[in-house]
Amino acid sequence: METVNWNSLPSLALHQIFTHLSPESRVAASSTCKHWRTALYHPQFWHTLVLDIPAPGTSYAEVKSKVKHANKNLVTLVRDIHLAFDSRSTQCFELASSVIKALMGNQLLRNVDIELNHCELSKDEIFQYRWSIQNYFEFAILNVVQKGNIEGFSFGYFMFYYWNALIHMLSKYSCDSLQRLELAGLGPSIFNEESKTTCFNSTFDSMSSLINLKKLSLDLNSNTCKLLPALCSMSQLEILVLHVHNELDIDISDDIWADIKKYCPKLELRLTIINCHIVAKHLHTKLLRPSMPLTHLKVLFCNMMNIEVLHKLLDYRNTFQSLIWVDEQSMNPAGLLKGHWHLEPSADDIETNPLIILSWVCSKLTELVVLGYLIEPVDVCGIARLRGSNLKRYELLEEDICFHQPQSEMIYDEVILDVSNWMDTNWKPLNKINFNIKHFEPKQIFGQRCVKEDKQSNCWMLMVSTI
């Protein structure tokens, strides 16, 4: 019998064998010899890479070694990369910059997602050095974007200071391919006294040229407001996500929204208010406009329930799909109990919870999450009866449901059974004992396996932290 030298298998045959192996088996097989190890690093096996760089401690040398390995063998192979790191650490910035530098040799790159795990830099004795590292980091990103054919780009939880240059680069090199753009703050970098108007007009034109965008996510501030008319050129735009963190110093007229709605017929507007009491207080008068194609509203940690906003949402009865209102400590936890309005002006003796009216009028409502506000058991059931199995997500805190009120006629088990029957699922309210309300904070949580494959997206995750 002829002896087979497995170390000398043709690369094509070895690659074919690897395609039939699971990710874990493929990694194990690649440890057989150098030839088999080389076969592992084929673009087909590394479609997506998620690289999470933690704040280094005593294991910094090991973290650095793993990042170096990824830069040499993986970063240049992937189509999609998700890079997350601790922005408070200079060492993390340096390692992240090395990853971006390695991306310059990637000819297959299509999606770049960068997440800074903290929204600000720490101001310590080496802050100036860290600032120079961030500048290098952003310029490296601009160089990567110049390679063109980018389909998706996101930079989250931290302002990209040269965002106007970024938009210009995406417009110049990826205007036909770019379908997704997600940025945090659009800061004042486009405004300088010497060429304020020229610079803004250039940025506006660059934004307008991104005609194939399907998803756009931005923080809403004065710069964003002035760029909104550019959306009228994006007829393919399907999702617009606007995050509000601070009080706006500029009003957006209803005419602007009417034009956007006219030229972007598929558009869904998803509005998120985060930790800003003053915006939540005046949301119904200062921000919401009748022509908005509003489908989703999140109000997170704003310390109040604005009943007038719930009433205003009826203006979007043909589009509205999701309401999430979450507070840990509110100024008016009984807002839903005290905020009833009359169904008819003449019906002085009939009052209805605003969430009941919302569930009744908004025919597309599929998601309702209200945490931190008291609600009657009968209203809990009423919402489920009105929405039925169309309500795909319905979350309340058990502690918020007023089972022990003298006027309450329903007990816990009756509510659970009634809601479950109407929603055609096994429903239970959340419980503070086994639920952390901080899960609603805008953070991404990654898995904890060293190597993991998502079979639906062929996504590999490489966790460089030591476990």
Layout of helices and strands, plus pairs?
Blueprint: H1 11-19, H2 23-29, H3 34-40, E1 48-53, H4 60-73, E2 80-85, H5 90-103, E3 111-116, H6 127-145, E4 152-156, H7 163-174, E5 180-183, H8 196-208, E6 215-219, H9 222-227, E7 239-244, H10 254-263, E8 268-274, H11 277-281, H12 283-286, E9 294-300, H13 307-312, E10 322-326, H14 335-338, E11 341-342, E12 351-352, H15 354-361, E13 367-371, H16 377-387, E14 393-396, H17 412-423, E15 451-454, E16 459-463
Parallel strand pairs: 1-2, 1-16, 2-3, 3-4, 4-5, 5-6, 6-7, 7-8, 8-9, 9-10, 10-13, 13-14
Antiparallel strand pairs: 11-12, 15-16
Helix pairs in contact: 1-3, 4-5, 5-6, 7-8, 15-16, 16-17
Report on the structure:
By secondary structure, the chain is of the alpha/beta class. Helices cover 34% and strands 17% of the residues. The chain contains 17 helices and 16 strands. The chain has helices spanning 11-19, 23-29, 34-40, 60-73, 90-103, 127-145, 163-174, 196-208, 222-227, 254-263, 277-281, 283-286, 307-312, 335-338, 354-361, 377-387, 412-423, and strands at 48-53, 80-85, 111-116, 152-156, 180-183, 215-219, 239-244, 268-274, 294-300, 322-326, 341-342, 351-352, 367-371, 393-396, 451-454, 459-463. The strands form 2 sheets. Strands 14-13-10-9-8-7-6-5-4-3-2-1-16-15 form a 14-stranded mixed β-sheet, covered by helices on one side. Helix 7 crosses helix 8 and helix 15 (354-361) runs parallel beside helix 16. The longest helix has 19 residues, at 127-145. It starts with 10 loop residues before the first helix and ends with a strand.
